[in-house]
Amino acid sequence: MTLFLSYLLKVSVCTAVFYIAYILTLSKETFFKLNRMVLLSSALASVVLPLCTLKITKGIIVSQELAQDTFYGEVTGEHLFAPSVSNTVWTDFLPSALLILFLIGAAIVSLRNLYGVFQIFRIIKNSRHEIRSDVKIFVSNDNVIPFSWFRNIIISAEDYNTNREVIIKHERAHIKLKHNYDLLFINTVAIFQWFNPIFWLLRKELITIHEYQADNQVLKNGIDARKYQYLLISKGTMQSFSIPVVNHLCSGNFQKRIKMMLKKRSSPNKAIKVLLLIPLLAIAVAAFAKTEYVVFPKSLTTEIPKYVAVRIAYPEEAKNAGTSGEFHVRIKSENGEVKQAEVVDIKKYPNIPSCEPLIVVAYGKSTEKPAETESVKGLASIENELLRAAALLSQFDNPEWKNGNHDFILPVVFELRKPKH
Fold first, then answer.
1. Using CA atoms, how far apart are residues 208 and 180, in angstroms rounded to an integer?
2. CA distances from 107 to 26, 110, 116, 181, 275 (A)
3. Are strands 405-417 and 325-334 parallel, antiparallel or unpaired?
4. CA 76/CA 72 separation, integer angstroms
5. Residue 68 Cα distances to 62, 65, 71, angstroms
6. Chain segment 100-128, per-residue pLDDT in tens
7. Using one digit for the tens of pLDDT, what is the confidence trace for 272-286?
8. Nearest one of 370, 160, 406 to 296, comparing CA atoms
9. How far apart are CA 43 and CA 182, in angstroms?
10. Residue 397 pLDDT grade (very low, low, confident, very high; cuts 50, 70, 90)
11. How far apart are CA 247 and CA 243, in angstroms?
């Protein structure tokens, strides 16, 4: 329950961040297609990102003593089996109350959407219609604001007789640009974000972008701009029957729509501002990252090197090539059996627990600089020896080793000294 409420809060925060970034960067530009994609992507990212949490693994070494309970004085059966007493406060019921409140709001928004769909079918059923090449036009006797629903255009009888050419071109643009699919998605998200005022602003902005696109298509088709603007103003001031789940002729802020029609097209170079939104994705992923702690027993940090010390050898090929240095073996085990071992770069695994370093000393036969092929063979022989020695840990008879799954680093230093005289 708490996790779900936490998820909803994270979605709200993401929505607010992306919406504010959009308003500051792109909202006043005429990149209608780009802005539409940014708003839809913002809504989708806000829903998905809190679910895709990045796990950061961090190893910690603990003593066995930390994993036990300590009692002082005389311990009786009464102490062992006495029920715990807790005082119930009103905050204990807060998550349940919030969840119930959320479900009530979600149910209201769902019913509102369903009622809107019901209204559409009722209007369609009671309207006369005509079929054109790509759409169906339904003429209603109700005083309804014209709107489109997928491939259906609904228009009042009065508008059909006076302004049908302009209105049908406007609604055809919505159908061609598939705006109803956007609304289907955004209205579904609204069921879960009904309490978030920023989300409703984002939804309103998306609907306004839809109208910018439809207005642009109408004007491109040769409709007189002044007459079209006057139609929007006259329809916007009338009290008419409208449906909440669709784009109708007067959706959005018609004053902003008129200003956008008169505005000069934005320079294509300004579209680069969309790149400013990319760091927000990285910040969101980092903000929702979870730290996963890997516990490694402290005793094993010394017992494992002791066990390996008597079973590892300095390879002859490495001695002959003069190969030495510090190497790190990452070992993964399950219940005492080594599942994976590899020689790694320690810099890439700063959060994995590490054993005490094991030092293997040998005396070299030559101090001359070896050939490149000998150096390669020397390194390969050391790596093979490290993996062989790591595999022997499957025979390590230690309770802490066998009763757990471990992921750790074993540092091994191969030190080559000059021969003694």
1. 13
2. 34, 5, 14, 22, 38
3. antiparallel
4. 11
5. 12, 6, 10
6. 999 999 999 999 999 999 999 999 999 99
7. 888 888 888 778 777
8. 406
9. 11
10. very high
11. 8
Distance CA 110, CA 117 (A): 11
Pick left, alpha or beta for residue 280 (phi over 0 → left; psi -120 to 50 → alpha; otherwise beta).
alpha
pLDDT in the model for residue 55 = 61
Q: Is the Cβ–Cβ distance between 296 and 62 less than 8 Å?
A: yes
- What is the per-residue pLDDT across 307-362, written as a single tens digit (0 to 9) for each? 999 999 999 999 888 889 999 999 999 999 999 999 999 998 888 899 999 999 98
pLDDT above 70 coverage of the chain, percent? 85
What's the pLDDT tens digit per position in 215-225? Answer: 999 999 888 99
Q: How far apart are CA 157 and CA 241, in angstroms?
A: 13
Burial class, 282, CB count within 10 angstroms (exposed 0-12 / middle 13-18 / buried 19+): exposed
Provide the 10 A C-beta neighbour count for residue 218.
23
* Helix, strand, coil tally for the chain in percent (to 5): 55, 20, 25
The yes-or-no verdict on residue 240 having pLDDT over 80 is: no
Q: How far apart are CA 363 and CA 314, in angstroms?
A: 10
In contact, 292 and 407? CB cutoff 8 Å: no
Amino acid at 351: N
- E strand intervals along 246-324: 290-297
pLDDT at 233 over 50: yes
Could you tell me the two tokens for 69? 């309970």
CB 54 within 8 A of CB 289: yes
- Cβ–Cβ < 8 Å for 206, 253: no
Q: Which residue has the tokens 């005082």?
A: 87
